[in-house]
């Protein structure tokens, strides 16, 4: 079997897996599969892996988190560190061991800890970590790790920039004022980050820094721009398809209506 056929079969298998009704519970790594400080890689396309890590809060609640690794020639592009410093060390070790190519670009998709706390480990490993000026400002104000490199051209809602295999898109404020999404045109994979919720989630999550009014319109910008996306990856939990975007809009509209009633 030549590599191309193998790659094609992997893609078909992944698409089947993702579209199967029962997908996820058994096959996608969850908090019980990935203890805090550890990492799991899941290949979903010949050139794309998701990385899954977890965090345990003081109250015992466990929370998983997704990031993405994209192969481009002999280099890797990383979308978000893992959850925390230790898991990001584990991520770098897993990349070395399982993929064996250098990470030449990393992006933090917003200023919260789940997207920046591991950036120091990346930078210590010689990886340049990019974020928008707004993300760097918000991270600094929150006392979070500040990614060192600036990614410009994403000031207005609807702006997009291409970096290697990634199209980085600013849909407008949502989960946070600075949330970015990443689309991979070659693979049809959309990394929605924390602006997009997994299907089994029934509340809009951490809204401390959210713009609840702007969020649905920002999600509609994603729908308008990427109707062709085949796989959609939320910031936390199971990947799905574009229905995750409409699901997230529904959650927000219900949440908002609930608030107005009270
Ligand atoms: Zn998040």
Question: How many H/I helical runs?
Answer: 7
β-strand amount: 15-25%
Bound molecules: zinc ion
Q: Tell me the structural class.
A: alpha/beta
Instruction: Round the Cα radius of gyration to an integer and report it.
Output: 17 Å
Order of strands side by side in the largest beta sheet? 1-2-3-4-5-6-7
Q: How many domains make up the coordinates? A: 1
Could you estimate the helical fraction of the residues in percent? 25-40%
CATH architecture title: 4-Layer Sandwich
By CATH, the topology is Metallo-beta-lactamase, Chain A
Q: How many strand units?
A: 12
> What gross morphology would you assign?
globular
Instruction: Give the N-to-C terminal Cα separation.
Output: 62 Å
Arithmetic mean pLDDT: 91
Sequence of secondary-structure elements: HEEEEHEHHEHEEEEEHEH
How would a crystallographer describe the biggest sheet? 7 strands, mixed
Topology summary:
Elements (H helix, E strand, L loop, with lengths): L2 H17 L20 E6 L2 E9 L5 E11 L2 E5 L5 H14 L4 E5 L5 H4 L2 H6 L4 E3 L1 H9 L7 E2 L9 E4 L2 E4 L11 E4 L4 E5 L21 H11 L5 E4 L8 H19 L1
Parallel strand pairs: 4-5, 5-6, 6-7, 11-12
Antiparallel strand pairs: 1-2, 2-3, 3-4, 8-9, 9-10, 10-11
The chain binds zinc ion.
The site of zinc ion has 5 residues, from loops.
Describe the protein in words:
A seven-stranded mixed beta sheet has the order 1-2-3-4-5-6-7. The chain starts with a helix and ends with a helix. The model is unreliable at 19-25 (pLDDT under 50). By secondary structure, the chain is of the alpha/beta class. The radius of gyration is 17 Å and the shape is globular. The protein contains seven helices and twelve strands. Helix 6 (215-225) packs antiparallel against helix 7. A hairpin with a 4-residue loop joins strand 10 and strand 11. The chain has one domain (3-16, 24-261): Ribonuclease Z/Hydroxyacylglutathione hydrolase-like (Metallo-beta-lactamase, Chain A). Bound molecules: zinc ion. Zinc ion is lined by residues 112, 114, 194, 235-236.
């Amino acid at each position: 079997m030549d590599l191309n056929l193998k790659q094609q079969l992997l893609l078909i298998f992944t698409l089947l897996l993702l579209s199967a009704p029962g997908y996820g519970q058994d096959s996608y790594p969850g908090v019980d599969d990935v203890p805090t400080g550890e990492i799991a890689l899941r290949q979903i396309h010949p050139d794309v892996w998701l990385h899954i890590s977890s965090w345990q809060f003081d109250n015992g609640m466990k929370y998983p988190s997704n990031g993405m690794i994209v192969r481009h020639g002999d280099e890797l592009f990383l979308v978000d560190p893992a959850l925390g410093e230790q898991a990001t060390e584990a991520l770098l070790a897993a990349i070395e061991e399982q993929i064996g190519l250098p990470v030449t670009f990393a992006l933090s998709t917003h200023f919260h800890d789940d997207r920046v706390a591991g950036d120091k480990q990346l930078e210590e490993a010689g990886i340049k970590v990019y974020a928008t000026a707004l993300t760097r400002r918000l991270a600094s104000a929150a006392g979070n790790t500040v990614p060192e490199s600036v990614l410009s051209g994403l000031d207005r809602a609807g702006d997009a920039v291409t970096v290697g295999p990634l199209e980085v898109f600013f849909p407008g404020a949502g989960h946070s004022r600075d949330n970015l999404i990443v689309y991979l045109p070659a693979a049809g994979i959309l990394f929605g980050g924390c602006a997009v919720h997994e299907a089994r989630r029934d509340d809009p999550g951490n809204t401390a820094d959210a713009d609840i009014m702007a969020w649905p319109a920002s999600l509609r910008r994603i729908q308008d721009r990427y109707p062709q996306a085949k796989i959609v990856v939320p910031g936390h939990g199971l990947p799905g398809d574009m229905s995750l975007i409409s699901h997230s809009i529904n959650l927000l509209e219900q949440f908002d209506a609930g608030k107005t009633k009270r």
